[in-house]
Design a protein that fits this description.
About 35% of the residues lie in helices and about 20% in strands. It is elongated and about 75 Å long. The N and C termini lie far apart (about 65 Å). The protein has about 170 residues and is of the alpha/beta class. It has one domain: 3-Layer(aba) Sandwich (Glutaredoxin), CATH 3.40.30.10. It has a five-stranded mixed sheet with strand order 5-4-3-6-7.
Length: about 170
């Protein structure tokens, strides 16, 4: 029994290192958790425009277009960091439809934010309750998705995008 008690911590340590080694050999990036939606059809959504209650924005608006979807909020500090880069994307890829979803924010706060910082989006959609974000699997802000002309999600980024991400990851897909 004493031998077992002495060997048990060594066995637990061995198991821990074995699982760590397996994880490292898989070369998974903890900053890029897998998305169940990659290479799948865009989830159904149907919401209204932030600036026009009569304008309905749905996944049907994405047909035959390359689309960049960004979930943001006025209270989100990382969203403010990445915000100016969407102007650069819009300038470099004028044919790209950029949709911003105001996620779990207030109408007046979002309007003030876009008024102060500028509006780089082709369309700004409401997601105040978070239902569209839920369909996309959003669990933190900002999150950005790239959808191809066939309506499939081909890229997902969690956190603020950077120039390096635009150049190395998004641009090759357009």
């Amino acid at each position: 029994m004493k031998k077992f008690i002495l060997i048990l911590p060594l066995f637990i340590l061995f198991l821990t290192f074995t699982f760590l080694l397996i994880y490292l050999l898989q070369q998974k990036d903890p900053h890029k958790p897998p998305s169940a939606l990659l290479n799948k059809e865009t989830p159904f959504f149907n919401t209204t425009s932030l600036f026009d209650e009569n304008l309905i924005i749905s996944n049907k608006d994405l047909n035959n277009k390359n689309v960049l979807i960004n979930f943001f909020a006025s209270w989100c500090a990382p969203c403010k960091v990445e915000h100016p880069l969407f102007f650069e994307i819009k300038k470099e890829f004028p044919e790209l439809l950029i949709i911003g979803f105001s996620h779990k924010d207030k109408l007046e706060d979002t309007i003030k934010y876009l008024s102060d910082e500028g509006n780089p989006y082709s369309l700004v959609a409401k997601d105040f309750e978070g239902s569209v974000g839920f369909e996309f699997g959003v669990f933190g802000l900002p999150e950005t998705f790239l959808i191809n002309k066939e309506g499939k999600i081909i890229y997902k980024h969690i956190g603020p995008i950077t120039k390096k991400i635009i150049f190395n990851e998004i641009k090759p897909l357009l």
